[in-house]
Design goal:
With 64 residues, the chain is mainly β. It is built from one helix and five strands. 8% of the residues lie in helices and 33% in strands.
Length: 64
């Protein structure tokens, strides 16, 4: 799992896109299937289960 902003205890994401194939263009980016977005910026990329850890009560989740 990789964090874009380095938060130790990240806040809930506004949007999570999951179940897709994500091309991260970073070394070791295989297995990325989800993206979390917070305040218009990518907060985290990783496997669905990892990224869903950022889901909160108000998070919109879209299955790709």
């Amino acid at each position: 799992m990789r964090t874009a902003d380095g938060d130790a205890q990240p806040a809930s994401a506004d949007l999570i896109l999951r179940g897709g194939v994500v091309h991260s263009l970073s070394p070791g980016g295989q297995g990325v299937t989800a993206i979390a977005v917070r305040e218009g910026r990518v907060a985290r990329i990783g496997a669905d289960r990892e990224v869903m850890a950022l889901a909160g009560a108000a998070t919109e989740v879209i299955d790709l």
